[in-house]
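In this supplementary section we document a worked example of the pipeline. Step one takes a protein sequence of length 355 as its only input; no multiple sequence alignment statistics are reported here. Step two produces a three-dimensional model, which step three serialises into structure tokens for compact storage. The input and output of this example are shown verbatim.
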Amino acid sequence: MDVVFVINPGSTSTKVGIFSKSGAVKEENIKHDFEDLKRFELVSEQFETRFKPIKEFFEENFDREKHKLVAVIGRGGPLKPLEGGVYRINEKMLEDYKTSKYSNHASNLGSIIAEALAKEYSVPSFIADPVTVDNFWDVSRISGHPDIVRKCRSHALNIKATARRDAEHIGKKLEEVNYVVAHIGGGISICALEGGKIRDVNDGLLGEGPFSPIRAGTIPINGVIDMCFSKKDRKEVEYEFSANSGFQGYLGTADFKEVLKMVDEGDEKADLIYRAFVFQIAKEIGRYAAALKGDYSAILITGGIAHSERFISDLKEYISFLGEIRIYPGEGEMEALAESAFLAVEGKTEIKEYI
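The serialised model returned by step three reads:
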């Protein structure tokens, strides 16, 4: 049985899995010592700390008599703006990740670890649809100030996998349909997807869109200016907006289930913030429906928070008039990576080179 090995690093853990074409053979979320990880200035310097337990997991669960490893694929971190798709891991890519040229993000390690393990087993290594996949319309880049250009940064991997899945469901190719896709989880990306290409999206990492469990999203610029002048340095300001905002900032927790529990227990502040959360997401979905001039097959809701029937029900009260709404709960990153790897090794998709 052909299998691929999938590597998806997070800030303090790494999700790994052995996948066949029919699904996961074995998955695990390997937790790392946070105190050990934070010793390193660059994420890439965590390689040895993370690689050892990942390799041990693979060797313990890879059955040489039953399995044939055909590829290793890692989650793609921030790179220069590029087309979506599957990319071969090459030296240029590794150099940009090792030096954190575009961002010092945990996902940089996806390609570094994937390439190292693939080399030991003499199989190809890939990434697919990293967060900086960029097919923006020219008008999408305009911010309102000539020195500030809007960036295309999103949960591209799950967005495109969800859309591909829905297109197959309705008997079409991804390139033949348009969607509004809302990935709603720890981070939020809501986009206009035209023929499989992200034409506009809020910055899913920092700076735009609805507030998330920990991120501020779009906020009044006067408040941003005031905070910049009241804080000591850039990192402090970035922390406030990227890790101490949203539910965390207002309510002291980023746990969505805990927020709903507070609402059910009669906490009026929690109720207001939750309703604002739904309200902001609904408004953002409406923006991207307009961006596509209403020319889309459906609105797709995905991500971890899409598991909440209450949230979906509340959201639909705002957006049902916009057309068909289909729900695909969960982040699906591991499955999407595995699918991309099989498409690549079977010659069913172009393998692109990072230059």
